[in-house]
Amino acid sequence: MVLLFINISCNSNSIYFDIEKQSVVACKGVISRLSIISYNDDDCWFISLSTGKKGSKCFIINEINDDYSIKSLFGYYYFIKDFKLRPETEYEIINHSFGGATGGKLLIRTDNNAVVNYTCKKTCKKD
User: Fold this and answer.
1) Which pTM does this prediction carry?
2) Cβ–Cβ contacts within 10 Å for residue 123, how many?
């Protein structure tokens, strides 16, 4: 007799960007690990939830709470208060919160005040 086990995750890495709230939002589950990669500069950040903390469904870009830590591509840690998006820059955001789930990706762009004014995904619904 052969038993077959299928591991089905109830969680998803699917995300969208809420322009009004300036936040990354998880379609299911919570956000615990993100990569934010700049297409205009050499910026690449890895944002991870600190051990023992709970993630949140809504991740506000300009008000990252102290439960998260930020590390650059080169391994340097940033203070949360020092993290800022750049003006007139395009970023790719990738959600890595649930290792076995498909990666959720989206593209955002900032205006001359570094406020996100464009996203490729505004809801969880497939366009």
Assistant:
1) 0.84
2) 11
